[in-house]
């Protein structure tokens, strides 16, 4: 963990603001604006980019991916610029939890993969880049989004340690644990061999 340079009240305010930013359900907003219907009634019902892709609109899926990753990155960068490294890590956690449990959708959110990667890129670009490369390599080999997310999340803490960002390891372990929890149904389907491929039907 980084050195604590802010008081509890400052960190609480950072966490709340980051949570509210992370809670913005861009997948739902993008599909609604583009006339693609209610994302929560499509495919898996998840609000992330993978489910947006099931609408057949690659542009909408890309926009969702960038916006979900961007909100995590923006939260981290703003917090770091205004309050320092400890606030940045608190903002990363807040934005991530906001995506998973958004107040605007009665706390029924996404699985957090794009936001997870976005926060890593903002916290330490080399670590985020390594995690994104891990996701991409696994996706190219397996064509399974959930497996790619799980592998990237599992190895992210390793990348942080190897690349000299050990102060991020505890945070990454927490985030990765949530990623695995949110992917428990996917893990069961992976074990059963029934998990759909990227771009396939749910």
Q: Helix content range of the residues, please?
A: 55-70%
Task: Tell me the series of helices and strands, N- to C-terminal.
Answer: HHHHHHHHHH
- Shape estimate: globular
Biggest sheet character: none
Rg calc: 16 Å
Which helices and strands, and how do they pair?
Layout: H1 8-22, H2 26-33, H3 49-53, H4 58-83, H5 85-100, H6 113-123, H7 125-142, H8 145-162, H9 169-182, H10 184-192
Helix pairs in contact: 1-4, 1-5, 2-4, 4-5, 4-6, 5-6, 6-7, 7-8, 8-9
Task: Report on this structure.
- With 202 residues, the chain is mainly α.
- The chain has one domain (8-192).
- Helix content is 69%, strand content 0%.
- The chain contains ten helices and no strands.
Can I get a quick summary?
With 202 residues, the protein is mostly helical.
Short key terms for the protein model shown above:
10 helices, globular, mainly alpha, 69% helix
């Amino acid at each position: 963990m980084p050195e604590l340079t802010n008081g509890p009240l400052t960190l609480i305010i950072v966490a709340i603001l980051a949570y509210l930013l992370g809670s913005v359900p861009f997948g739902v907003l993008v599909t609604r604006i583009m006339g693609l219907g209610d994302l929560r009634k499509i495919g898996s019902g998840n609000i992330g980019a993978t489910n947006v892709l099931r609408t057949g609109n690659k542009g909408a899926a890309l926009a969702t991916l960038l916006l979900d990753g961007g909100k995590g990155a923006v939260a981290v960068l703003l917090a770091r610029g205004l309050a320092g490294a400890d606030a940045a890590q608190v903002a990363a956690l807040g934005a991530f939890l906001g995506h998973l449990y958004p107040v605007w959708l009665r706390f029924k959110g996404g699985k957090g993969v794009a936001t997870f990667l976005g926060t890593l890129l903002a916290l330490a670009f080399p670590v985020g880049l390594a995690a994104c490369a891990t996701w991409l390599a696994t996706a190219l080999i397996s064509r399974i989004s959930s497996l790619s997310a799980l592998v990237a999340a599992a190895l992210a803490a390793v990348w942080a340690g190897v690349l000299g960002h050990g102060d991020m390891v505890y945070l990454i372990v927490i985030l990765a644990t949530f990623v695995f929890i949110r992917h428990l149904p996917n893990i069961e389907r992976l074990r059963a061999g029934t998990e759909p491929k990227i771009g396939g039907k749910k």
